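User: Batch of two.

Assistant: Item 1 of 2:
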Amino acid sequence: MWRVIQLPTFLVGQFSKTLHAKIPVPELKLPNPKSAHAPDAVDQQLRCVEAPHVAVLVDTASNYGRGLLEGIAEYLESQGPWSVYLNAHATGTIDPKWLKNWTGDGILAFVENRATENWLKRKRIPVVELYGHLENSSLPTVCGSDEDIGILAAQHLLDCGLQSFAFSGYLDENWSRLRQRGFVAQTENAGFKCATFDYPRSVNALSDWEHWQTQLSKWLEARPRGMGIMACSDRHAQRVLDACKRVGLNVPDDVAVIGVDNDVAFCQLANPQLSSVADSPKRIGFEGAALLDQLIQGKVSLAEAGQRRVPPRGVVARRSTEVRSASDPLIADVLRFIRDQNRYGSSVKEIVAHFDMPRSVLFRRFRKATGRTPHAEIVRARLDRAKHLLVHTSRSILEISEACGFEHPEYMGAMFKKLTGQTPGDYRRERQ
């Protein structure tokens, strides 16, 4: 016989095909009613065939929240189904009255304050937090690695040949501070200082918006030209772009800007289009659902669940970091030539011929402007392209090495491990 789990009609897209699945339920062989253990036996059989009741509390207004749902749905395709209550407009705070009356088996949550964390702990049901916004949370957590996000953004701007850096984010938000920490550490490790500008996360009144945009504009205007700035999110990057326009700063020539989340709607509507660090919400959703499933089944204890941080997928480069100006304009042209997607097979010989300059002059000016040799930059550009193809395509290592200008996949593998500490295969598995 079959049993159909009916879900509320407001559940979105990908859940419908997974969660409205038919679950085979075997007929129960009822024990002898005279047995003292008969009720427990029946209850146990019922629990074995009933799908777990799980609340999913995410904010689908963001690219991150939508990615979480995709990952959860993918997990349920192979391991579910669950009976799901979905709150697609979660704010990080849970109504304690709802929580008190809800009798489910587990929660995938968005938690932003200590009171909500304590309510969830008192509920004594399995919970996995998916955002990582609350500092030193004691809840089992699967979330992004914010420090790694900052490091990746800094490295992208360093690779653009920039030598002046800044970060703007939300001082009172733990995730923003972690991104700032990674960004500042990476730029300082490269021998550069990093300026910072703190902005309030919530600006409601128009007068407050104008005040803070004016302050940000004045701060940017006082910074040196040819600067690279990381905004803590794509939404905040919009504010940075607006502030640049207010004081006549050209992006990317005067200021290169990079955000976080790779929210395509925000990035492509921005003027110029916004470069962004792509985090891993789909993988976080998948791993978070898997961890909650293990907690519900008792396969993992709270102590074993701990905190799991998933690395970002990479940088999606767009117009806002296509730096034209540099201390040496000719070397800026060489950098663009090397990083043109159609020239990953370029060589030093080809560069010398294209720019009609002696090899010794190219090496001297290139090292002075970037601190690297032209060959090292060519390899770096090829490996950046390889990273993108490893994460965003299913092409084989051989196909990727050929597409990126490497004659042999073994050489690509050796250089890849030297730069990243991982083999191409390990890098792909960690981010897909």
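Item 2 of 2:
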Amino acid sequence: MTRSLSATVLLSAALAIPAAGQNLLTNTSFDTGINGWSPANTAWISDAGNPSGSGPGCVEVTAPAINGGGYFTGQMVAVEGGVTYEISGWAYVPDRADNIAAGSEFLVQWFSGSELVDARNFPTNTTRGQWTRITGQATAPAGVTSAEVWFGVRGPVSGSGTPKARWDDVSFGPPQTGQLVADYFVLAAGYGQGKKGTFWTTDVSVFNPTAASLGIQATFFQGIGDNSGATPVSLGSIAAGATMSIPNIVHAAGGSGTGAVRLRFTAPQGATSATAAVTARTWTPWLDASIGQGATAISSASATASAVGGLVENAAFRTNVGVFNAMGSTRQARVRIFDSAGTVLYDQTWTLGPYGQSQVSLPSLGISSLEGGALRVDGAGVLAYVTPADNVSGDAAFLEARPVE
């Protein structure tokens, strides 16, 4: 018999990419002015005469302050959640003594209606005195409807002068490759020692239901801080209709201990789907067998509030509370715990870095006794769960929070 702490898998579904290679921006060559573009952070934008090779015009972005900040010009465009977009442009940083720009850079902000869901800054280009093409890719979070696309200049922290950068032939849209991408998160994945002599390992099984081979990458995220620099590890590919078993997914992703694992599936050009069926089992040896329980994929990436019951803290059972930030920017989550009568026992705001995760015990939150409690977490792109565990055997269950109003 197998029972266990189960790992849940969050599905961020891939959608069909509309018109691969299509540029969603307008007036991208700036040959006839800067109509359709708006300044941000009080940046100054103007026509500039230094061509990039495609024509006589470009846009110049000037930072009015020396504070290390970024200053941009941008446009708002409609997007679909789960779709990967490519941003590119030709950048020029004038090589003059009075231009103290740290470099040129671009930024994408994702919105659901009027709510900012996530943002992605791309590395600064520091090349001076020549036109350089800069590119990057980002996947729209599930549930977003629009993106604000910005091109600009990064100013220094201090200095005397005027930071300037120029842009031309900018683009934002589905990449030319036409590849589809789907992300899945395995929460509370483990590879390490637990309490009561347990040693937890998370295994994953993947089924590819599509008609094309899918590439797989695994990225391990650990801790509450900034995990945006975590390195993905290629796990090869899975053929159409095939099943792949991945023992010890944390180790396979280059990690150890507990955290979250993102599985990214990439479909080839011309494919219509990159989705997969993913299950996970977190288990520990027990006597001559093991205890463990699996979990199937759930889809709640667009939820802004979620809740789950089953919290207990007494002589027989203990409960851990976990919150994971599934976004690539720092997020805040309001965490509340209620007793069975609805009385609020805990109400605090947690700050989690990009792809950051925090799992804590109820006593660490000041709750030493609880029967039939509940957890509610409010925050866009933030996922929550609880893990009640037997104090004698260490046997545990994984209960994911579900979307609520």
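The radius of gyration is 24 Å.
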